[in-house]
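Thread amino acids onto this structure.
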């Protein structure tokens, strides 16, 4: 199990809603962007607690992580994986699957892949493709996470004492 490096990013950009609502795409959603609970679509009128929202977000993350792992054919660290999971959570795994981002990543062009997050900051508004500030912020945050080095685990006190002897 990973540390779910992208979960905080997803929660920040999805926001928390304890009562089901229809998202801009017309899909019933609750919690931190959850659209299915126990395999069933979320129904309008459903309410949950913050604790349930956290549990559903973690379960959703694990589902999306599995889908992302199936698409990525090169080694990635937990931050890169987290950024890709956030991307797929927001846009769908099919968007990642057909993206230049994934093609560059799978060709081991990690820097080129990172630069591709910015391309995905537009949405259709009134039939016209427009850049959205919220998507720009999210893509910038995903790119930053993708590029962030993973910190080495800190040695435990007992390990530090053993090494100093």
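Threaded sequence (165 positions):
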């Amino acid at each position: 199990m990973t540390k779910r490096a992208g979960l905080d990013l997803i929660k920040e950009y999805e926001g928390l809603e304890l009562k089901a609502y229809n998202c801009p795409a017309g899909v019933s959603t609750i919690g931190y962007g959850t659209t299915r609970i126990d395999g069933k679509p979320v129904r309008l009128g459903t309410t949950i607690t913050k604790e349930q929202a956290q549990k559903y977000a973690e379960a959703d993350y694990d589902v999306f992580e599995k889908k992302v792992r199936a698409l990525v054919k090169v080694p990635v660290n937990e931050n890169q994986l987290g950024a890709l999971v956030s991307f797929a959570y927001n846009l769908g795994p099919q968007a990642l699957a057909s993206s230049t981002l994934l093609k560059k990543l799978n060709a081991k062009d990690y820097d080129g892949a990172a630069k591709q997050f910015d391309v995905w900051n537009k949405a259709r508004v009134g039939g016209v493709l427009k850049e959205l500030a919220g998507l720009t912020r999210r893509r910038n945050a995903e790119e930053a996470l993708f590029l962030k080095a993973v910190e080495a685990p800190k040695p435990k006190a007992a390990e530090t004492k053993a090494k100093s002897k």
